[in-house]
Amino acid sequence: MTDESAPDGGEALSEGLSERLSTGKLLLGFVIAGVLLYLLVVVAGWRRVISALQGADYTWVWIACASTIVGLAAWGKAWQIVLAVLDIKVEFKRLVVTYFAATFANYVTPLGQAGGEPFIAYILSRDTEASYEDSLASVVTADLLNLLPFFNFAALGLSYLLLQASLPDNAKTLAQGLVVLAFGVPALAYAGWRFRERVQDLVLGLARPFTSRTNRITVDGIRTRIERFYASLERIAAEPRELLFALVFSYTGWIFFALPLYFAGRSLGLPLGLLLVLFIVPASTLAGLTPTPGGLAGVEAALVVLIVGLAPITTGSAVAATLIYRFASYWFVLVIGGLAALFVIMRS
């Protein structure tokens, strides 16, 4: 349970957004991304891109948008299952709105996807009956569950490509990045669990200089939070059947999150096969580490490079397909997530 003096879900979201966006980095990030996207389209040829977009079947575009929403909702369901293991009962319709609101916050901040778990856990803890430690444990667990289908689908698509032909040099770098993550992330997660006492000592050592300068946080308080966090992880790990059930929704989420690129290809009449898409989407996600909101420009550039390098598609058509995919998987989510954020603030 949260402290009575702590802000509720709406206040937490409002305060969190203000804190993350107050430095002006948001505006700067969008401006830089806009310039880079402009250059990308210019290089591909304005006329070619516009001509491709004008000939698109926009029925497939809206199907792509719907697919993205289903994918995000599936991930929200996986979170609900993990929270239930911690005896935290949250209605799905309430939790999915909170999830969309937190996704919006991550999508509009630079590197939000690289370090948004604590923020999402904070929103969840203030908008539900979960403690912050339980919320963070559920977020971390759900993210780890989502990594399994991420790498599985990427490996499936990569295997298909290797059987068809050798990868171009520009795609090899991203493929190597996927391999590093496939082994590195699980290794780090295992090390964090296996040597949790050392992790705790490291965190406390880093925190001591700050605790000596303020009365708001203490070493004992941080130690208690870390212990509660690992205790929550142990409770979750003790329910493998529930984790397997959550994993089903993780796979479902990834399928529906990758399908919009396939639908973008269908809308333009381009030969983007399902197995090809299953490699391109995870590979391009690595470019989301670009320090712009939602990886803007970085993801688009990676998508264009991969599509042109792996499929018989011209640069202009590849840019058009990329723009449609990002409309469905990013800009459309911004609108829906923004409305969800307003709703979370207002319902409090």
TrEMBL record:
Domain of life: Archaea
Keyword Membrane: yes
Main location: membrane
Subcellular locations according to the entry: Cell membrane
GO cellular component, one term: plasma membrane
Pfam annotation, one family: LPG_synthase_TM
Assigned keywords, A-Z: Cell membrane, Membrane, Transmembrane, Transmembrane helix
Keyword check for Ligase: no
Membrane topology: Multi-pass membrane protein
TM spans (from-to): 26-46, 58-76, 96-124, 136-162, 174-193, 243-263, 269-289, 301-321, 327-346
Family according to the record: Belongs to the UPF0104 family.
PANTHER family to which the protein is assigned, alphabetical: UPF0104 MEMBRANE PROTEIN MJ1595 (PTHR39087)
Name of the protein in question: Lysylphosphatidylglycerol synthase TM region
The species this protein was found in: Haladaptatus litoreus
